[in-house]
Amino acid sequence: GAAAQKEAVGPAFSPSTMTTPPATPPSGSKSHAVRFRMSQHQLAYKKHHTLRRRSKKREGFRSSAWLCGVGGVAGVLTLVALARQAGMRPASLRGEASLPPFPPVDCVAPAESRRLFYSKPSSSKFADAMTHLGWRRAAKWTDAEVLWFHQKSYIDWEALECWQTVNHLRLEGTMSNKGKFYEHLRRTNASAFAYLPETYALWDPDDRRRFQGAALSSSRGPGAEEEESLDESPPPLAVGGKKKASSTTMWVLKVPTTDGGKAVEIVHDATTLFDMGNTSSSLVPLLKATHEKKIAQRYVSNLLLLDGHKFDLRVYWCVASTKPLLLLYHDGTLRVSLTKFDAADGGKGTHLTNAAQQAGGHGPDSDERSRRPMAALWDMLERERQPHWPRRPRAYVECEIRRAVTSIWQAFQDALLEAEEGEHDRDKDDGDDAREDATTTTAQPSSGFHAADTGSTGTAGVVGRTTTTTGSGTTKTGNKKRSRAFSLLGLDIMLDQNLKLHVSEVQSGPGLPSNTQAVADVVGKMVPALANIVTSLHTSDGGVSSRRLPPLAGFEVLIHGSDLRQSHWCRA
What we know:
Layout: H1 2-9, H2 30-85, H3 91-94, E1 116-120, H4 125-132, E2 136-137, E3 146-149, E4 165-166, H5 173-176, H6 178-188, H7 190-193, E5 199-201, H8 205-219, E6 251-254, E7 265-267, E8 274-279, E9 285-287, E10 295-298, E11 305-306, E12 309-322, E13 325-340, H9 348-351, E14 371-373, H10 374-383, H11 393-420, H12 430-443, E15 466-469, E16 475-478, E17 484-485, E18 487-495, E19 501-508, H13 517-538, E20 556-560, E21 563-564
Parallel strand pairs: 1-2, 1-3, 3-4, 4-17
Antiparallel strand pairs: 5-10, 6-7, 6-10, 8-9, 11-12, 12-13, 12-18, 13-14, 13-20, 15-16, 18-19, 20-21
Helix pairs in contact: 4-13
């Protein structure tokens, strides 16, 4: 029966089964027995190949499953790597996942002004982004809920309504003014001040004496500092320690209120800055009067080069909200000189990376090589890794950039946020304001240095405050109302060969060109994301619902309220 047949077939077919007699065949003729044996062999052969086919199918299924699993993991890792390169980190790493809802807006726009925006100039990338979000353009700025002004001087601060949101902070000019920026950091925040190159404010008598000692000793060559002292002034304020004098020391002179590389001088011979025939009582040559309203910085001599060219980083940061505070960071681009670096070259285009100093400028003929994506820097750090660099050079630089932004903001935070509060009693702050104004005025030239902070005729020093002079000579200030504000800022950073950061300047209302592909890629993603964040945080139909932060799309939270967030780049 079945048992006998199974025993005859066996577990697998082999040639030996051809000679092994099967179970006792049924009685009958010889031909009947032969047919019986052949049928048994055919059944065994068929069963053998059926089992083999099934085994191959199982093996193929296992191989396919294994390959799919490996491919899936590789795909996920690839997507994560690409997302990190593009700045699209997971919400838990970007920092917005755990942010609580923002409170409802405290001053609601009238119905006829809701979802209206105003832009000056009328054609701007922000205007395009607002239109894409479904907002309508207002003919007059007084009718719009969100305002975008390329220049802060266009803003009539006293006429702003409490329900209007404008894209500048009232006192942000104190950061973009190179002189005020240096003086404020030196006075208030040592950690942020450490990111500056060795700097001197030449309108300040003490700084001027220090610069004379540093510049003239360096121009006399090594060992000059050990000779008789030129004066009895304290040693130079050298950030990161005193530097050894060198006959090749170069200096950079800047006018604090200009940008774009205008009025910047690259000085190879410091003696040309002094009237060598006119000396002070201590026989120190006097600085020429034409330089006494400038700042002087020691040229960073060991800069990191990109394929032999000088470069710096233009990154972006944003005060998305002042109440509660929300500080964001966004990657930028590399600004690259088109000329091979040569320290002896006197051309500004070799030493300055500003677009205005390169061929093509900001126009349509700009050379694509003048702006590179930040990925070019990360590739170079990996390709040219040095033994003295940190183990993860990119993570180190990324972390240091965010720390620099955070430190700079913390240095200015109190002053900037207080200026945004327009409803509290300013009379109680008159004394502090007067002292601050007096400090700023004596530390800098009286002509031209408050222009960036003046909102309209009749204001001085502090934007948005009407000023009156009392009989005693004191100044009283007061704000009509407090409007809402956000601000997109730029930060220019240099890297030396030890990967130390050197902050060049802060940009108030940085340019948003699209004349090179690298810049267009960054701006094309950043501005729409900014418009989405601003409209989500600063506007509300009726003002009764809580506001939540939308997807940041490339931005990263640095500070929320009093919570200082640690970037994932800074984690070991």
